[in-house]
Design a protein that fits this description.
The protein has about 190 residues and is mainly alpha-helical. Helices cover about 75% and strands about 0% of the residues. Helix 5 runs antiparallel to helix 6 and helix 7 packs parallel to helix 9. About 35% of the residues are buried.
């Protein structure tokens, strides 16, 4: 058995068990890691995800929220909470977490793009446009474009869904003012 004073080693072992699909042993190791350092935000977050994926979604989200409170200046913690909440189809609450992440780190493009995405998923094209404009204002076109190009494979299915569900409305979200191709470009390439 590992020394209980090595919480990081227990967290690594928990990751190993989790990736092997053994959620029970993963949670046991995370428990050991947390006994060694109960305020470690990464262990708290890992335990939250383990519970979430085990089907204990409320407990998992609570753990992710606790990790965010332990590491309040880390926008990635807020994005974790938002990601879990999106999986429960609570888009409005997720958007609040995106806004909090943007407040903490307005220069990070991923939070802005996620806010655009969450609004598009709800058919709120005008709010998506506003979020894109705000992202360009705070991050700059090149950083936003770089992030979009990194995430394009994950955005293509979203644009396909938008084309099927909203057709012309999705095409109205033009990125031209920001020096980017319009959504029509991505819709054409998503098919």
């Amino acid at each position: 058995a590992l020394d209980p004073d090595l919480p990081r080693a227990h967290r690594v072992l928990a990751g190993y068990y989790g990736s092997a699909g053994d959620r029970t042993r993963s949670l046991e190791e995370l428990g050991r890691a947390l006994r060694g350092d109960p305020s470690d935000p990464q262990s708290v977050a890992d335990r939250g995800w383990a519970l979430f994926y085990r089907g204990e979604r409320d407990e998992g989200i609570h753990g992710l929220e606790r990790a965010a409170s332990l590491d309040p200046r880390n926008p990635a913690r807020l994005l974790d909470v938002a990601d879990a909440i999106v999986r429960r189809d609570d888009y409005r609450t997720a958007e609040e977490y995106y806004d909090r992440a943007i407040t903490i780190a307005p220069d990070k493009p991923s939070s802005h793009l996620l806010k655009v995405w969450i609004n598009l998923m709800q058919g709120r094209v005008e709010r998506a446009r506003a979020a894109m404009r705000e992202g360009v204002h705070q991050v700059g076109v090149s950083k936003l474009l770089s992030q979009v190009s990194l995430e394009t494979p994950s955005w293509l299915p979203i644009f396909r869904i938008l084309d099927d569900a909203y057709g012309p409305a999705a095409g109205q979200l033009s990125w031209d003012p920001f020096g980017l191709a319009s959504v029509d470009y991505y819709l054409a390439n998503a098919k």
